[in-house]
Every structure is written in structure tokens, then in C-alpha cells.
Write a structure and sequence with these properties.
63% helix, 2 domains, 104 residues, mainly alpha
Length: 104
């Protein structure tokens, strides 16, 4: 008889080391691009994109979300999407995107 609480498959130690190395490299790139003056106009979106990629790697591998049930993934990603939408709405409301109530 098969155990109904069988463990989910997880990544190998090598995978964790590769992910850690990638996180280290991305962090080094973030620090380096901060000092490149030519990237100043796109600095914030670039850093946010790199940070989002690191967030996805940490959540997916080190928090084991990649290997958990899709229900858990939905319980994590759903509220995350709502939170991002609220933040963007507040930024738009206060005119951060150029014009609006707070930009005048």
C-alpha cells in the first residue's frame, strides 16, 4: 500500500548551489550597475527587474514553492498580485507616474 503522505520531489544540492551562485552574480550585477552613470535613466526599472528575478528564485527554490502543490503556489502568488496592484494604484493616485493629484 502506498503512503498518501509521500514526499514531494525536491532539488538536488547541486541545484541549490547553482541557484545560490546565480543569486550572488545577480546581486553583484545590481551593485555594479548602480555605479554606471549611463544606466541612470533606467536604473530603477532595471534594479526592480533584477530584484524580482531574485525573489522568484528564492521563493521557488529555497522556500520550495516550485515543488509544492499548485494550491500553495496560488495562495502565495494571488495575494502578491493583489499587493502589487494596490501599490501601483497608490503610485498612480499620487502622481508618481507623471501627472495626477500628487504631481501638481
Amino acid at each position: 500500500m502506498e503512503n498518501s503522505t509521500a514526499q514531494h520531489e525536491h532539488a538536488s544540492v547541486k541545484t541549490y548551489l547553482v541557484v545560490a551562485a546565480v543569486l550572488g552574480v545577480v546581486t553583484a550585477v545590481e551593485v555594479a550597475i548602480f555605479y554606471v552613470e549611463a544606466l541612470e535613466p533606467i536604473l530603477v526599472p532595471l534594479l526592480l527587474t533584477l530584484s524580482a528575478a531574485k525573489f522568484a528564485l528564492v521563493v521557488g527554490f529555497f522556500m520550495h514553492l516550485k515543488y509544492d502543490s499548485k494550491v500553495f503556489r496560488g495562495l502565495f502568488i494571488g495575494p502578491l498580485i493583489v499587493a502589487v496592484a494596490i501599490i501601483l494604484a497608490m503610485l498612480a493616485l499620487f502622481g508618481v507616474f507623471g501627472g495626477g493629484a500628487g504631481g501638481a
